Amino acid sequence: MVSPRGHYREESPQVANIELIRQSRDRSVPETGQGLQKGAIHTDSVSKSYGGGSGRIDAVGNISIDVAPGDFVSIVGPSGCGKTTFLKLLGDILEPSTGHVEIDGRPARAMRKGRRVGFVFQNAVLFPWLTVRENVTLPFQIARSGGRFRRVPNEFLERVDRALTTVGLEDFGHRLPRELSGGMQSRVALARALVPEPAVLLMDEPFAALDELTRTEMALHLLSVWERVRTTVVFVTHHIQEAVLLSNRVVVMSRRPGIIRRDITIDLPRPRSLESRRHPLFGEIVEDLTLDFHLSGRD
Amino acid sequence: MHLAIRGRPKAQARNTDRSSRRVLSWFNQNLLIPLAIFVVVIALWEWAVVAFEIPQYTLPRPSAIWVSFSGESGDLMHHTWLTAKEALLGYLIGNGIALVLAALMAEFKIVEKSLYPYVLVLRSLPIVALAPLLIIWFGFTIWPIVAASALICFFPTLVNGVEGFKAADTTMLELMRSLNASRTQVFQRVKLPNAMPYIFAALKISVVSSMIGAIVGEWIAADAGLGFLTIQANNFVDTLLLFRAIIAMAVLALSWFLLVVIIEKRVLKWQTSS
Ligand SMILES: Nc1ncnc2c1ncn2[C@@H]1O[C@H](COP(=O)(O)OP(=O)(O)OP(=O)(O)O)[C@@H](O)[C@H]1O
Ligand SMILES: [Mg+2]
Hints:
The structure holds two protein chains of two kinds. Chain A is an alpha/beta fold. Chain A folds into two domains: 10-116 and 200-298, 3-Layer(aba) Sandwich (Rossmann fold), CATH 3.40.50; 126-197, no CATH class. Chain A contains nine helices and ten strands. Chain A has a six-stranded mixed beta sheet, sandwiched between helices. In chain A, strands 2-1-4-5 form a four-stranded antiparallel beta sheet. In chain A, a hairpin with a 6-residue loop joins strand 9 and strand 10. In chain A, 42% of the residues are buried. The model of chain A is unreliable at 1-37 (pLDDT under 50). By secondary structure, chain B is mainly alpha-helical. Chain B has two domains: 2-51; 71-273, MetI-like (MetI-like fold, Orthogonal Bundle), CATH 1.10.3720.10. The chains are: A alpha/beta, B mainly alpha. The A-B interface holds A 1-3, 7-11, 88, 91, 93, 112-115, 117-119, 121-123, 125, 127-131, 138-139, 142-143, 145-147, 149, 174-176, 178-179 and B 3-8, 169-186, 188-190, 193, 196, 270-272. The structure holds adenosine-5'-triphosphate and magnesium ion (MG).
């Protein structure tokens, strides 16, 4: 298990409730979130090593990065360079070996405990024994019940239904995950991550398991969802065109131990669509990054 | 197979006709051939006993076994019920303790480390050899038999349970951590459901184990029960009685096993059915 002792310490139910009430108030703020600090990430020379002694693996080198609230940043890099590890550091699933992570000026730990950070993994990781709707309700159930089963209040269930509508699955709430296609499953995972309205959404190759067509469809879908909710997204991918199409900014990591090798701004106009790929800048950036990607894999 | 769309119990009454047809086709697919084999084997058996003049104390005719049931079925029920009670108690106690212990061992490293050596030692002991000791402890009641039955169920379930509780998907645990789930919640919502297939595998195996425990226990310390009946039949060379006892055991074990399978199907509805 990744977690050292004490990570499952429980907050008192009141704290959790206050957090939820606060979050539900966020709802009344205009969706663009103007004037509201939403998901500014700041890392200060974080690094991560696995194991110790002779078997030590330095996964993440030394990364200092700032991400503006509401930004969309992609991370690309060769396999095994520490992208997943870095994402886990941002979400406080792992603790950094050195340095620290702050989100909106608070430590990553506090943000995780306040459920302000959403995670989407490479596989949808849906609970096969729960229906689609129950899967999306899970974040609320965990927030409400101090280990006991209790009914989730209607206002939250309404938010679950809204999230399902957002990802176009309003008619599939009663299905079991195995009855859905791969693309639909990743949309459920997206809905589950979005339903607590996180300040930061961390996505680790969320579409890697999908075929190319579905993958593009999902990218466009994510684009439209993000343009509505405008939470900060950090998106790990191997797919350079996907990264360029989606992001404001693409970060290229070096080989292990991963450090930032390049950090470029994508100035393609928004809102973006499939048409954006026709933009002359698109091909140029993709070309440039592809070269760089291969170089970073070699040296 | 049928798609499990939850939360729609209505429209069932209207479908009885369709469902009875489904039962029929299920029967045709799964039971027709085994049943035919059964009939053929019984017929061959009946014929062979007559043709080769096999004496009844070696192998009675199926029809003779069938007829002999009518005389003293009440007595047989009494013995069956006793064995069922012993085996069921052993089953519940053995599996219950095993599952609680498995959860503790999977959840707390200290518990696992301190208990595992004992588990290994106890597991390598032939439980049947403990029966005389159990009699000394519990006296000539049903309890040494229940204990033997419980002990035989215990270890496979413990091992399977520990494995099941530990088999939870790492990413699922990371997801729970990102949601700031408590340890209890992680157990309830991830580890327990995840262990269910493992647990049911053990619960099915231990149906037979608990019966073996009860029967062997009766051989050693009982004056009633199906195990006792087989010993008595042996002493009096009453082969008909032996067959009646064996058939009663088979019916008991089979219906019990089917019950567990039905419960499993309900609990594990979410699993992909082939
Ligand atoms: N739990 C762990 N224990 C030990 N080493 C690990 C662990 N997780 C990852 N590593 C190692 O750390 C390095 C970085 O792994 P990480 O999964 O972060 O890479 P990645 O960039 O996400 O790779 P990929 O593109 O293949 O997903 C790899 O060499 C990997 O073997
Ligand atoms: Mg990875």
